[in-house]
Amino acid sequence: MEQHVDVQHEEPVPPPAESSEPSSRMTRRQALTLISMASVNFSSMICYSILGPFFPAEALKKGASQTVVGLIFGCYAVCNLIGSLILGRYIVQIGAKFMLVAGLFVSAGCTIMFGLLDRVPSGPAFITLCFIVRSVDAVGFAGAMISSFALTAKIFPDRVATVLGSLEIFTGLGLILGPPVGGWFYQSFGYEVPFMLLGCLLLLMVPFNIYVLPNIEADASKDSFFTLLSHVKVILICYAIFTLSAGLGFLDATFSLFVINKFHLTPGYVGIIMLGLSLPYCLATPLMGYFTDKYPSVRMPFMVVGGLITAIGFWLLGPIPVLNISG
């Protein structure tokens, strides 16, 4: 007699679907990339901000007018813009990692060369070399920062704002340490030492990033920069970045001279006063990045309120005549 045995076949369990929520735990590649990006932000910004407390006064001794000093600071931004457009166009062909490392190397060399400009004769020779070195430095810095943004977007696609906000801590640290460190070293050891130390720091970042940074291919962009400018929101963002950066550049060229002449302070104290700009920036950016990732609807209000607060700060710094505040 045949026995019929019902055999129950277990259906294969499908693999668990990947959650759309970003994992709170970083992979090794993400951690190494974050360390690399942090080192780039910190070292680049400390070298940028070191000039503020003492270079304008030093340039005046070398025969440069205040207008020329402003142009020396301004050429950095112009060349950074042009370099960003060109290097951003060819980042896929060059490679993000190579561009970042090469940018750091160029910035390191330019920082060291800028420290040797006090040996150049006063007048046109000094002014010309200042423009050349700062322009090349700006292109190198542009390459490093473009690669940094590209790698961050590639490795942290689900939390770009949070990661960029966290990285801005190190940008803020560079802005915080640059003025007081530069002012103190200049006051204690002279013009060359601050640039030599920071140039060597940048050189150390080159092999570090070669070892730490993973090899990642950047994705080719489908739209050009000018195509993006056809969008109103992109124009508004560019305008916000432009105005805020112009304010920082304005202070770099004029603030230290004003404080030294009016209050007779040393470059070391001028560097400490400049902490009022960089320290709140360092503390606020990670918080802003977290909120804009968690609540995307607050991004535009944050831009508007931040712009108004910045405008009020400049009105008080002047101060504007309407306030009738006498020094």
From TrEMBL:
Identify the domain of life. Eukaryota
Q: Where is the Major facilitator superfamily (MFS) profile domain?
A: 33-327
According to Swiss-Prot or TrEMBL, what is its membrane topology? Multi-pass membrane protein
GO CC, alphabetical: membrane
Q: Which InterPro entries match?
A: MFS, MFS_dom, MFS_trans_sf, MFS_Vesicular_Transporter
What start-end ranges are recorded for coiled-coil regions in this protein?
none
Here the segments flagged for biased composition (Basic and acidic residues) are 1-12
- Record key words, sorted: Membrane, Transmembrane, Transmembrane helix, Transport
Q: What PROSITE patterns does UniProt report for this protein, alphabetically?
A: MFS (PS50850)
Compartment(s) where it occurs, according to its Swiss-Prot or TrEMBL record: Membrane
In its UniProt record, a GO molecular function of this protein is: transmembrane transporter activity
| Stretches that traverse the bilayer | 31-51, 71-91, 98-117, 123-151, 163-187, 193-213, 225-248, 268-290, 302-323
Question: Annotated region Disordered: where?
Answer: 1-25
Q: Does the keyword Glycoprotein apply?
A: no
Q: What is this protein called?
A: MFS-type transporter SLC18B1-like
Q: What is the lineage of its organism?
A: Eukaryota, Metazoa, Chordata, Craniata, Vertebrata
Q: What gene name is listed for this protein?
A: LOC103361395
